Fold this protein.
Amino acid sequence: GENVEQHPSTLSVQEGDSAVIKCTYSDSASNYFPWYKQELGKRPQLIIDIRSNVGEKKDQRIAVTLNKTAKHFSLHITETQPEDSAVYFCAAADSNYQLIWGAGTKLIIKP
Amino acid sequence: DGGITQSPKYLFRKEGQNVTLSCEQNLNHDAMYWYRQDPGQGLRLIYYSQIVNDFQKGDIAEGYSVSREKKESFPLTVTSAQKNPTAFYLCASTRTGPGPQHFGDGTRLSIL
C-alpha cells in the first residue's frame, strides 16, 4: 500500500525567510496530494493541493511542486510570518481515495 | 463553519464506560472518517465509511465501533476495551473520488 514520508520533523526559520517541507510517496498510481496546516488544539485545514497532471501550483506565499518520476512533492512558504508557525501535514491519495498522511512537520518562525 | 459538527468538544470517560462521539455533516459528502491524534503526533485512521450502511476498519480500529445509518451522520463509540482512549478525535468527510478531506473541530477525550 501507499506510504508517505515527511521531512524534516521540525523546521526553524527566521521570519522573512523561506521554508521548504518535503514528502515522498511509494505508490506511483497516487494522483492527489494535499497539504494541511494545524495550529495547536485546532483542526487541520487545507492550505493547498495538487493533482498529478500538474507540476506546480501557487497561492500567494505558498506553493507546491510535484515530481512524479521521483515520487516526491514539496511545500514552499516564502516570506514567512509568525502566523505561519504550526504543524504541517502532507498526504497522498491511495487507490481507494483514502489519504495516507505524513507524520507532520513543526514549523517554528523565529522573530 | 466547515459544515462538519463534532460534539461534545470535551468528554470524560470513567473506567468500564462506553462513550459516543457525534459527527454530523451537511456537505452532502459520501465518505466520512474518524481519526485519532495523540499529543505531538500525526493522524491515525480509526474507521471510514464510503456509503451508508457500510464502513471499514482503519489502522487502529480495536476498541472502537461506528455506525453509518444516515449519510450525514457517523458516530464513533469508544468502548471499555480501548484501554488508552485519551486523545483528540477528529471527524472528516469528502466527496467520492480523490479530493480534500474537511475536518470538524474535534473532540478531546480524557479518562476520569
